Amino acid sequence: MSTKEKGVKDRILETAVRLFQTQGYGNTGINQIIQESQTAKASFYDYYPSKDLLGKAYIEFYGKEQLVLLEKLQSRSETARDFIQAWTHILRRQTRNNEFAGCPMANTAAQIASTSPSISEEVKKLALRTVDFLAIYLKERQKKGQIPKNADTQSLARKIFASYEGVLQIWKLTGKISALDDLPEMVDAIIKNSGKKSPI
């Protein structure tokens, strides 16, 4: 692919990312993307023959950005609490941006329901990759004595990911940024109780 071709494709994707994030996947039409990306219709369909393919590219783009962010936060955090607090700080900053409407994974999955198997599969893969990333990070913290030795780090990672998605939904429903501040406390409680056996 030539530099010029790459430029056109990137411009289409960048426009789609902005519109999908602010308006939602379901509320954004191809014609608007073509118009705002200043792309010829024929060129658009050369790169993205369907909206589904563009939606999949959107989730892939977000996934790369998300994992790069988490890796950066991990490298700067001494403890799991530091990591979650830094993540919360990023979320608070993002919510002040009018172009941020919450988690693209959850938003897109809710909008497409079961109408796009390819996008649903991409969302599923990204969610699992995120949980796996958190599990690996928690395993490292466990080796350093910051997580109970008998804790299941994979289960712990799922609960933390669920908490992350949960506080974003509460923020969207209530409009209160303070909902995000519950994340560190929720994760603290999850980690504290992770080594305890559930009563039978």
Automatic annotation (TrEMBL):
InterPro entries to which the protein is assigned, alphabetical: Homeodomain-like_sf, HTH_TetR, Tet_transcr_reg_TetR-rel_C_sf, TetR_C
Transmembrane segments: none
Keywords: DNA-binding, Transcription, Transcription regulation
Residues in HTH tetR-type domain copies: 6-66
One Pfam family per UniProt: TetR_C_13
GO MF annotation list: DNA binding
DNA bind region: 29-48
Protein name: TetR/AcrR family transcriptional regulator
Organism: Leptospira selangorensis
